[in-house]
């Protein structure tokens, strides 16, 4: 199972209860936008937010962005209403339905089944993808099975705020470091295990791993550091809770010209070695082999998608 290749450096959350923000998000620089029906919408406003999201699917030009809607959880009375309304809407511009607080593979199977039934009944021309948000202890424990539960799944996302609550972590921040974690002398990253596990499960299943948001949108330095950590571990991009975070995330997850140039040198050196019947070669004093080709090809392919 391999997800559709899409640019996914930044993923901007937009409350579906705020339709005046939709055109700004569509015109902005985020690679992906998700209209949120879940946590950012009060219970009394769920129906109105759903109607706003449905209207926005065909009423706004979203360009080449990944367009997603985060529906309410399967433990609420809103989930099935959200899915049916979105998939019965005219057209097929919706790319992904994001499912929050996924706890095990059965929930993904149930979501896939509902989507298949509604798509068949509505005559939808294009199958919608799934984006699975891992934000509970149960979901993190079952993340490998969750990642392979449906061929619809395109991406896995880390929901840090709810995960912190589910794990009983002593913090009220959304992402970021905690001075209590390392004790005197330095600060370690308390999110390392969760981020690494979600990324590993996603990559093993051929999905795009998306790191969780950084809540302090005024802390540019902290955001950049968090993005670099996610990138170093293999994340494809990061969720943004404010449009002011998008440019920094795009820059952090975009290979720079030097990296791309070096990747092209690696490919050229390995091709020369192949023609000579060798499986490895030295370049700039470092050994290259078949694994180096895969790494370089991935970087060049991403740069080409970025134009």
Protein architecture, described:
The protein is α/β, with parallel strands linked by helices and 307 residues long. Helices cover 45% and strands 15% of the residues. Strands 1-2-3-4-5-6-7-8 form an 8-stranded parallel beta barrel, surrounded by 5 helices. It has a two-stranded antiparallel ribbon with strand order 9-10. A hairpin with a 2-residue loop joins β9 and β10. α3 (79-88) packs parallel to α4 (105-122) and α12 (257-275) packs across α13. The protein is globular and about 65 Å long. Residues 180-184 have low confidence and may be disordered. Belongs to the HpcH/HpaI aldolase family. Its cofactor is Mg(2+). Keywords: Lyase, Magnesium, Metal-binding.
- Can you give the helix content as a percent range? 40-55%
Number of alpha- plus pi-helical segments: 13
Sheet-strand content, in percent, reads 5-15%
Lateral strand order in the biggest sheet? 1-2-3-4-5-6-7-8
**Structural class by helix and strand composition:** alpha/beta
Between the first and last Cα atoms, what is the distance in angstroms? 26 Å
* Number of extended strands: 10
Radius of gyration: 20 Å
Main β sheet profile: 8 strands, parallel, barrel
What global shape is seen? globular
What is the average per-residue confidence, as pLDDT, rounded to a whole number? 87
Order of helices and strands: EHEHEHEHEHHEHHHEHEHHEEH
* Uncertain residue segments: 180-184
Cofactor: Mg(2+)
Protein name: CoA ester lyase
Organism: Falsiroseomonas selenitidurans
Family: Belongs to the HpcH/HpaI aldolase family.
């Amino acid at each position: 199972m391999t997800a559709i290749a899409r640019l996914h450096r930044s993923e901007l959350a937009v409350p579906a209860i705020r339709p005046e923000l939709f055109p700004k998000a569509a015109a902005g620089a985020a690679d992906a936008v998700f209209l949120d029906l879940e946590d950012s919408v009060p219970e009394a406003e769920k129906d109105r937010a759903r109607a706003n999201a449905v209207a926005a699917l065909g009423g706004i030009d979203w360009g080449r962005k990944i367009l997603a809607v985060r529906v309410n959880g399967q433990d609420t009375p809103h989930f099935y209403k959200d899915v049916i309304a979105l998939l019965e809407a005219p057209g097929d511009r919706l790319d992904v339905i994001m499912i929050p607080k996924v706890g095990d593979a059965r929930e993904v199977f149930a979501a896939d089944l509902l989507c298949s039934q509604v798509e068949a009944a509505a005559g939808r021309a294009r199958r919608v993808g799934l984006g699975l948000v891992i934000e509970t202890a149960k979901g993190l424990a079952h993340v490998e099975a969750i990642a392979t539960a449906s061929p619809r799944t395109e991406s896995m996302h880390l929901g840090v705020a709810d995960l912190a609550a589910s794990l009983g972590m002593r913090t009220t921040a959304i992402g970021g470091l905690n001075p209590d974690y390392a004790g005197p002398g330095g600060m370690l990253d308390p999110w390392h295990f969760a981020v690494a596990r979600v990324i590993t499960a996603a990559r093993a299943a051929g999905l795009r791993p998306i790191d969780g948001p950084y809540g302090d949108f005024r802390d540019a330095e902290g955001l950049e550091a968090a993005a670099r950590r996610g990138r170093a571990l293999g994340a494809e991009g990061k969720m943004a809770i404010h449009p002011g975070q998008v440019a920094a995330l795009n820059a952090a997850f975009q290979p720079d010209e030097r990296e791309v140039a070096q990747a092209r040198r690696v490919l050229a050196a390995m091709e020369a070695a192949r023609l000579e019947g060798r499986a490895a070669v030295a370049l700039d004093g470092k050994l290259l082999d078949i694994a180096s080709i895969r790494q370089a090809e991935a970087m060049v392919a991403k740069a080409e998608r970025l134009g």
